[in-house]
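Retro notes (design track)

What went well: tokenization of the new backbones is finally stable.
What didn't: we kept losing track of which sequence belonged to which structure.
Fix going forward: every design gets posted as structure first, then sequence, in one message. First example under the new rule, 307 residues:
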């Protein structure tokens, strides 16, 4: 049976000035990569602070790796949690080697492992450079190495690819894939939705301190019920002849030239549309089905208010 690494039941965190999060019911299965998305101020960072035990809930209960963050007698479970904040900040005058060694000692990690992690994140050539000379991307990679100390079972990553170039972003997700194979649970906040789409198992959308949608991409596509897009390549000069019958199939033509048609149809009409295109035989050279993107789904759900 799959366990939940994170469970929140009716959790709220209210301050005198504002309500940061309200009535959050949320769970993340062990080994899952859950993307947490929402506008600035939606409550994502507060949710991470609650999970880490840095702030206490106004109401509700939490279970993190089977423990309540408020339970001071169970502090040892925190060694199994890694955290990368959005803006990492270390002592400016310490070297990368000194910093990673210091945090390794706090987690009871060996010096060998700390240096191994610096190599994994691509900083082995910068071990003896002072932190203040690091670029934004290098600082972010040092933060990731720090988060990976102690072989965590739960990783909380807040905008982890901020400042990384495309090659470094790809390397970051290679590391994440290896962690997922080992069953590590990952909660990842990011505004870069296009890169998340191919990486995540599930997505939770927050708005104004509430969860407005949660589930796999397919779950969210079903909930959003947006039209499907198809790009159809036809024999040269045949688009007009094919377009009218497609409209009779309740399709909307969104683009047309001498060789290509782009159409939209309801998700429930997908199979009927594909069967119709198959019946056209050699007139159809190719059909490309374009799934609703995470950007499009976010646009739908970010305007909603959680219940």
């Amino acid at each position: 049976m799959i366990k939940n690494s994170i469970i929140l039941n009716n959790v709220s965190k209210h301050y005198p000035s504002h309500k940061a999060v309200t009535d959050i019911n949320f769970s993340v299965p062990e080994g899952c990569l859950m993307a947490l998305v929402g506008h600035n101020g939606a409550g994502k960072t507060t949710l991470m602070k609650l999970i880490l035990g840095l702030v206490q809930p106004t109401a509700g209960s939490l279970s993190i790796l089977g423990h309540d963050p408020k339970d001071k007698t169970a502090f040892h479970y925190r060694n199994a949690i890694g955290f990368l904040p959005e803006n990492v900040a270390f002592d400016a005058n310490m070297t990368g080697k000194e910093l990673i060694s210091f945090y390794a000692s706090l987690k009871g990690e060996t010096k060998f492992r700390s240096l191994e992690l610096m190599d994994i994140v691509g900083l082995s050539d910068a071990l003896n450079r002072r932190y203040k000379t690091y670029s934004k991307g290098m600082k972010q990679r040092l933060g990731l190495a720090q988060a990976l100390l102690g072989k965590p079972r739960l990783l909380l990553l807040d905008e982890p690819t901020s400042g990384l170039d495309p090659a470094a972003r790809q390397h970051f997700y290679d590391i994440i894939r290896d962690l997922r194979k080992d069953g590590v649970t990952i909660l990842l906040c990011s505004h870069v939705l296009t890169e998340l789409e191919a990486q995540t198992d599930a997505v939770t959308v927050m708005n104004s301190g509430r969860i407005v949608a949660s589930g796999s991409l397919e779950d969210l596509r079903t909930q959003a019920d947006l039209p499907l897009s198809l790009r159809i390549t036809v024999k040269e000069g045949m688009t007009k002849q094919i377009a009218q019958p497609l409209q009779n199939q309740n399709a909307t033509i969104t683009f047309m030239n001498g060789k290509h048609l782009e159409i939209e149809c309801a998700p429930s009409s997908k199979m009927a549309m594909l069967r119709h295109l198959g019946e056209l035989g050699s007139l159809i050279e190719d059909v490309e089905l374009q799934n609703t993107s995470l950007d499009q789904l976010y646009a739908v759900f970010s305007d909603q208010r959680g219940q």
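Added context from the reviewer: The two ends are 30 Å apart (CA to CA).
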